[in-house]
Design goal:
Elements lengths: L1 H24 L3 E8 L5 E7 L7 H13 L7 E2 L8 E7 L2 E6 L8 H15 L7 E6 L2 E2 L17 E2 L5 E2 L2 E10 L6 E10 L5 H11 L16 E7 L2 E6 L1 H5 L7 H13 L6 E6 L27 H13 L1
Parallel strand pairs: 5-6, 13-14
Antiparallel strand pairs: 1-2, 1-3, 4-5, 6-7, 8-9, 10-11, 12-13
Length: 320
């Protein structure tokens, strides 16, 4: 009997040890990305977080601190240059905004792209944040050409076999936002650097979620929205957004403006003629009050303000 008990205890200890080892393996591990000395590539180095994952803000702080320190890898340097500081960061739903000091703009173009790629690839591993945006002294990050960079994720950059990172292409998107009254649309062109493994349809929706980047128009898609899926078939773009989209719509905007901001923006792309919006894949119900989700909508240019109308609206605001 004693022998059986001893065997049972041994087995129990083995099971507990195995379970313990298994849980250790399940400890959240990240990769922190660093730049090589020649500024031609980035490298991911395994990193184990000590901050509680229940506090994603602390995890972000720890990852930023890690990127400020040089790695224990020959030939690689700290990701974030010594003079560049993350002043603060803020959360808005699935979007995390990192606010840098003005020294960020002292980097040359090649270094900046690599630094940006390394930071985004590192921070986007925090599951609470699907998109990362950069600001410098609280203003949206601009490229060397003066265009707004917009929100990014790990897919915004291409990894070549040699771990070299490059933004692959530049595209001018036509986006529609709300005017100051919330009753009309304003057409804005935005130059975006993007990776070929991202569809233009997804890029458009990410930019609408990111927002306006200016004060003269209003965002139509809540920044807390998450794009679940987007696809195109037979000229119809199917857009699935999560509950945060519908639950946080700006009631100061008309339902029509919100709908056609998305529809007009997506149908400005080649191959997209109509748009159907769903919430978590569900097309029953309405967007807000009047527009059925089950309908496939064509663009409506009648809502778009002309240049003359915009000037008149601006003059009216100045008088007020």
């Amino acid at each position: 009997m004693k022998k059986k008990i001893s065997v049972f205890i041994m087995i129990l200890c083995l099971v507990l040890c195995t379970a313990s080892c298994g849980s250790e393996d399940e400890t959240a591990k990240y990769q922190v990305y660093y730049l090589d000395m020649d500024e031609t590539s980035i490298l991911g180095v395994d990193y184990e977080i000590t901050a509680s994952e229940d506090n994603p803000s602390e995890v972000v702080d720890e990852l930023i601190a890690a990127m400020k320190m040089p790695p224990d890898v020959t030939g690689y340097r700290a990701t974030i240059p010594e003079k560049v500081e993350v002043i603060n960061h803020s959360e808005s739903g699935y979007l995390l905004t990192l606010n840098f000091n003005s020294a960020y703009y002292e980097m040359d173009k090649t270094e900046e792209i690599l630094v940006r790629a390394a930071i985004v690839k590192t921070i986007s591993q925090v599951k609470e944040f699907s998109y990362i945006s950069f600001t410098v002294d609280s203003s949206p990050l601009l490229t060397k050409e003066g265009t707004v960079v917009g929100s990014m994720n790990a897919d915004s950059f291409i990894e070549n076999p040699g771990e070299q990172i490059n933004t692959s292409q530049e595209v001018t998107l036509t986006l529609y936002f709300a005017d100051e009254t919330g009753t009309h649309l304003v057409k804005k062109n935005r130059v975006v650097h993007y990776s070929t493994n991202i569809s233009l349809e997804k890029l458009v929706m990410e930019q609408l979620i990111y927002g306006t980047g200016s004060n003269d128009v209003k965002a139509t898609v809540p920044s807390v929205s998450k794009l679940i899926n987007i696809s195109v078939a037979d000229g119809i773009c199917y857009v699935s957004l999560d509950d945060n989209f519908k639950n946080n719509l700006n009631t100061e905007l008309t339902e029509q403006v919100i709908l056609y901001s998305i529809v007009n923006s997506l149908t400005s792309l080649p191959g997209v003629d109509k748009v159907q919006i769903s919430i978590n894949g569900d097309t029953s119900g309405k967007l807000m009050y009047n527009y059925d989700l089950s309908v496939m909508y064509e663009p409506d240019e009648s809502l778009v303000l002309s240049e003359n109308a915009l000037e008149t609206e601006a003059e009216a605001e100045e008088v007020q």
